[in-house]
Amino acid sequence: MTAGFHELAQAPPRRTSRFDGELLEVSMGPQHPSTHGVFRMNVALDGEIVRKLKPVFGYLHRNHEKIAEGTSYLGSMPYTDRLDYFCSMTNNWAYALSVEKLAGIEVPERAEYVRVILAELTRLVNHTSLLGFLLSDMGAWGTPLMYAFREREKVLDLFESLSGSRMMCDYMRFGGCRVDPSTEWMAEAQKIVDGFPRFLDEFEKLITTNEILIARTQEVGNLSAELAINAGVTGPGLRASGVNYDIRKVDGYGVYPRFKFRVPLGDHGDCYDRLMMRVLELRESLTILHQAMKQLPEGPIQNPKIKIRAFKPPLGEAYGRIEAPKGELGFYLISDGTGTPYRYRVRPPSLINLTILEDMCLGQTVADVMVILGSIDIVMGEVDR
Amino acid sequence: MESLEEIKTRIEAARPGLVIAIIPNPGPANQPALLLPNEYAAAAARFLRDDPALCFDYCSNVTGVDWLDRTVKKKVKVKKLVEGEEKEVEETQEEFFAGYLEAVYHLYSIARKHGPLVVRLRTSDRSLGVRLPSLTPIWRSAEFQEREIFDLYGIHFDGHPDLRRILMWDEFTDHPMRKDYREPDDYEYEPTAHDDVLVRAKEHAAPRPPLDGAEAITSE
After folding, report:
1. pLDDT of residue A252
2. Min distance A95 CA to chain B CA atoms (Å)
3. For residue A245, is pLDDT > 80?
4. Three-class SS of residue A258?
5. Domain limits of chain B?
6. Please, where are the H alpha helices in B23-114?
7. How far is B141 from chain A (nearest CA, A)?
8. Span B41-58, mean pLDDT?
9. Residues of chain A neighbouring B183 (CB-CB closer than 8 A)
10. Could you tell me if B214 lies within 8 Å of chain A, comparing CB atoms?
């Protein structure tokens, strides 16, 4: 007698396995639509269950660090845009912050506020696109991604009118920012921020209670808090596991201590938590944006004492870090007193968050690997550098 | 967070015979480092992670640094016999520092929310195949980053679970982040042994003047 529908529904999730007990090795990628760039995984499969997984990357490697060690400090600033090409503003900020630490530069108050506004707008861009991509990976092909990109486009238009470029902004400078945003620009930004919750409410309603999405993400790719800390996972991935660690709160860089915002935390550390973490962080970003735009002071946007060209920081070294949308983005610089850095190092959150990809995927099915990878949020420009 | 001297004395007290040096950082960032001796590095790192007051449970950044051989010129006043008279004469002395490779770890505490603590490990020289102890068994986040150092700087990490090239391809032989790395003449094609190619290859292999960039560093 065949099992009835009811019994099948009660049975544990289907786990097929090969009859001969052999493992099948599959090379997923590098040209896979769900790997977000040229990324490959060597997977050993038992039926459709993952038994081993080794990520392979380096296809976009151009040795960013070596190039930066051969050019001036300012010369690397446009190149940092290309690391995580979704979030050029936060890349600029992390680099500028590290150089400011290295040389002991003060930043005018207005510039700090503008930096916060741009960083939070970047977070809106990154998290909405991630939600769209993740749904796209799960088979909701096209529509959610287009919804997300519609909102992203508005913010990118803002970036373009401010910096001249949509994605490669090259906007920040050591000791400030390149151009002062006008009042018209601020009004336009305010309009977009005011309109954003409407999209977010709709998007949240569409996705977060969707039965298929819940089935695909809950209890998939669980990550314990201990492993997350030990493996250096940062950003929304760490907080989804319930670890309260947000560098905006811990380091209080820029003017973040002046704003009231909460740090959302998950408690299962599965893909659903990681996804929801983005939705909740979007809401917190909006509250920060509202406060920053309201409090924005007048004044200079660039420290006038800083010689941008022929810039020579004193002897020493510095490690500076910020809470980028993907996690802790840090720059480690060693100055030998000349115009080029002796050592220039990027601490890429995308790369280090991949360390435990294998741990999260073991015992899951091959279809879940794409969801887990999508929920980590990587950009290959930053992984490979 | 405790001061660097206190941390140093506490680690030294926990393990007799251990001597830790503090590497000063002259810049405004004020991030001096602890230099751990290689044979005790794992034990000291475990102490840093497990001590309840320090609790450096999160290793954020791991990276390599290549320090070339360098000579520092100093002006010293020396007493000398000049024409039967003892006089003070200024002389330039050259002090030689042998080069080495370094692995730098930036540690933070998520539980106590302090940091960074900078920890350095040093190799004895810059030869190929130099070795350092791996700290991946203590902080998993070092796994890919130590692989990257192995790939780009050529430091072998003892005790690393999976030490392979990570960004360059497996057949690649050199270590591009070393300061004396030489780029290939031509990226586009494999040269065939014609005369002009051989001449260029000879020029490529010819010794070049020593690298600059490290002379300005005087603090040690």
Report:
1. 87
2. 14
3. yes
4. helix
5. 4-68+101-176, 183-220
6. 41-50
7. 4
8. 88
9. none
10. yes
